[in-house]
Amino acid sequence: MQAEDMEVPIINNLNDNGDRQRPKGKDVFKDQQKESESSMESPNLEFEYGDSDMLTAELSELYSYTEEPEFALNRDYFEEDFRSHARGRRWTELTVDEQRAYVMRLLDALEVTDRDKRLKVARAILYLAQGVFDECDTEVDVLHWSRHNIFLLYDMGIFTALLELLSMEIDNSQACSSAVRKPAISLADSTELRVLLSIMYLMVETIRVQTEDDRPEWRAARETFKNELGSPLYNGEPFALLLFTMVTKFCSMNAPHFPMKKVLLLLWKTVLFTLGGFEELQQMKVGARERLSLPPLPEDSIKVVRAMRAASPPASAMELIEQQQQQKRGRRSRRPLVKQDSLDTYNERDPFKNDDARDEEDDPEDTDSGIEGEVDPLDRDVIIQLPPPPPPLRPPTERVNFPKGLPWAPKVREKDIEHFLETSRNKFIGFTLGNDTETLVGLPRPIHESVKTLKQHKYVSVSEIQIRREEELLQCPLSLGEEEVEETPAEILYVGMLPNLSQYVIALLKLLLAAAPTSKAKTDSINILADVLPEEMPITVLQSMKLGIDVNRHKEIIVKAISALLLLLLKHLKLNHIYQFEIVSQHLVFANCIPLILKFFNQNIMSYISAKNSICVLDFPHCVVHEMPELTAESLEAGDNNQFCWRNLFSCINLLRILNKLTKWKHSRTMMLVVFKSAPILKRALKVKQAMMQLYVLKLLKIQTKYLGRQWRKSNMKTMSAIYQKVRHRLNDDWAYGNDIDARPWDFQAEECALRESIEKFNSRRYDKNKNGDFAPVDNCLQSVLGQRVELPEDFHYSYEMWLEREVFSQPIQWEGLLQNP
Known about the structure:
Blueprint: H1 26-41, H2 55-60, H3 69-86, H4 96-109, H5 115-129, H6 139-155, H7 158-170, H8 173-181, H9 191-208, H10 216-230, H11 239-251, H12 260-275, H13 278-291, H14 301-307, H15 317-328, H16 356-359, H17 377-384, H18 414-428, H19 445-456, H20 462-475, H21 477-480, H22 489-497, H23 501-515, H24 541-576, H25 578-590, H26 593-601, H27 605-609, H28 622-625, H29 633-638, H30 646-663, H31 667-675, H32 678-685, H33 691-704, H34 710-714, H35 717-726, H36 748-767, H37 782-786, H38 800-809, H39 816-819
Helix pairs in contact: 3-5, 4-5, 5-9, 6-9, 7-9, 9-12, 10-12, 11-12, 11-23, 12-24, 13-24, 15-17, 18-19, 23-24, 24-25, 24-30, 25-36, 26-30, 30-33, 32-33, 33-35
C-alpha cells in the first residue's frame, strides 16, 4: 500500500460548513445575532483537563447504544456455562481459588476450533470483565467486581490468549472478503472482533487507572502489564503496532468491518498506559533536564494552566451594529468601546473577570471579516461616539490591588541573544562576531544591561541539546563512537512505527476527517459507522432519534480518541528525540492536518461543546443495574443536565494543542495559518469560556499577529490584551508590531526540505543497519577472498556449464582496463 494512495483530501474551502450552505443577506445577520447572543450568555465552564475522563464515562463510551441488547446475551452465555460448574452458587460467593479454577476452564475452552463455541466463551469472559452485573445492586458494586475480575483474568493469562485470537481475526481473509462484497455493513459483521476488543479495552483501562485501595499484588501486576504492552513481546512488536496495522487495513478498504471506534479507543489507552500521561510526561521532562545538567523548569505548566481563569469573549460586529441602532432611537444601551483608565486593568486579580462593568465593554471586531478587511462604517461610528461618564467601579476608599505578575516566566533563546547582539554590533561598531554572546567590547552600557537581562531569562530546551549532539555525531562519527540509545517505550514504539509511519498518520487523519462534524458525506469516504449501525434499520421516529444520537456520539468518541492519541505521540516523541517528533509533524503537515483542524473549528463551536449526544439511562454501568425507563422523544431531546460535553471540549483542546505543536517556531507553517484565514475561525473559538482552550487559541493568534496587518490589530485590541495577559512572553519577540526579521517571504519548500534532510540523516545514522558501510574494513587478500566457502544451491551442478557459458565465456573481457589506474 503506497502512501500516495491514502492522501487526505485537501480542504480548499474552509468557509464551507459541511452540508449547510452559507446563508446570504439578512440570514447572515440572523446567524450572527444568534451566535452573539449565545456568546454573551455563555458561562464559565468548570472543566478540568486530564489524561481522560472519569472511569465510568470512559467505560460507557466503549459501547454504542445499539450494542445494549448484547449485555443480556453475555450474561446468558456465562450463566449457561457457570451453572454446570458452580451448582447453584453465585460468582461473588466463590473463593478466589474456585474463581481461578473456573477461569482456567474458560481459558481451555477458548482454544477449541469451533468458532461459535469460542465466541460463547469469549462472551462469558466479557461478562466477568463487565463485573457480573446481574449479581450487583449498585454501580459501585459493578465497578468493584469488574476490577477484581480483571486482575484475576490478567493473572491467569487471558490477555495473551485474546491477543492470539485477535491476530487470527485480523488475518481472517474470508471475513474480510465477505465484508468487502457487502453493500451495507452492520454490527453483525464484527461480532467476534468487538467482543475481543471490548475485553482487552476493559483490561487495559481498568488496570491503567490506579486507586488508593489497590492491593500490592495489583500494583505489581500493573507495572508488569505496562512493561509487557510497551515491549516487543507480542510477535516481536509492541501491542500498539498491531492496532495501528488494523487502522491502516481499515482505511485501505481491505477490512471495512473492523470496529474502528473500539480499535482507536484501545490504541489510545495502550499508548497512554505504556508511554505515560501528561503528569508523568512532566516528571520525565524534569528528569531529562537534570540528566543534561540544565536548570529546572521555571514553572509547572499543568499547575499554571489549571490556575488560569477564562476571559470574557470578544464582542461580535452584530452586537456593535445593534448598539448603534439603539442609540439612534434614543434609548439607553450598553456603553460602546471606552478607553479605560490605566489603573482599571489592575483593579481585579483577573483583568478579564466577567463582572458587570466589563460585560458592557465591546470590541469593534468582525469575526467573519477578512484578514485585512476595512472597519465597517457602522463600527466606525460606534468607535467615534463619545461615551457617557463611566460610573465608579468601587468606592474610592478601596485600595487598588495590583496582580503579582504574569502567569508565565519569560523565556529567551540563545538565537534571540545572538540576533540582538548582531543588530547592536552592526549599529554601534559596524561589524559582527558571529555566534559570540560574551564579548561586549565597544557596546554602550544599556546594551550590557539588556544582554544581562536576556541571559537571566535564557532557556535552553532539551531539544536544542539533542540537535547539537546530533550535529556533533554527524561531524565526528568515528571519534565519538556509537551513541547509546536508551530503550524507552517511546523509542521502541518509534522504531516499530518508522517503516510505515506515513501510512499510520494518513489513516488517522482520514478517520478524523470522516468523523468531523463539518465534513460532507461523500460516496467515496470511509464508512466509520460499521460498529454502530444495527442489522435492521429503525422504523419508528423514536428509534431514528436514538440511532441519530448514537451516530453523533460515535463520531465524537472517534475524534476524542484520535486527537488524544496524536497529542500523546507528539509530546512523548519530542521528549525522546526532537527529530522523531519532527518527522511525525512533517507527515501530519503534508497530509493536510492544518487545514483539517481549521475545518473542524469552522463551526458553531459553542454548540459542539454543549452538544447532548448521550442517553444517560443507556450508559454502562447504569443500564445494567437499574430498571430501564420508557424512552420518549422528549427525554431524548432533553439529553443530560451537564453544562458541557466533556469529550468534545477535551477534543477541541487536544486539536488546538496539536496545531500549536505543528506551527511553533515554523515560519512556513505559521504562514499556512494566515493563508487559510484562520484568524476569524480561531477568534470564534474564544467564545468558549474555558481558560485552557482560550490559552491555546491565543497562542495560535499570537504567532500570526504580525502578518495580519495593522487594521486587524487595531480592531482586535481586546484579543491583543488577552494575549499579553495569558501567553508567555519572549523578551525579543516583536509579535504585536510586525517588525521582526522573520517576516520574510514565504519559502515553504526550502524550510521543509532542510528539516527533512536533517531528519533523514538522523534516521540513517541511528536506525540504518548498513550505516557504517563506508567505514567497514575491507579484505584485500586474494587468497582469503578466493578461499571463502560459498554456499551453492543443490541443483547448481546441473546447470553449471550453462552458467559458465552465460556469465564467463560469452562476456568480453576488457584486459586493458586492468592496466588503467583505478
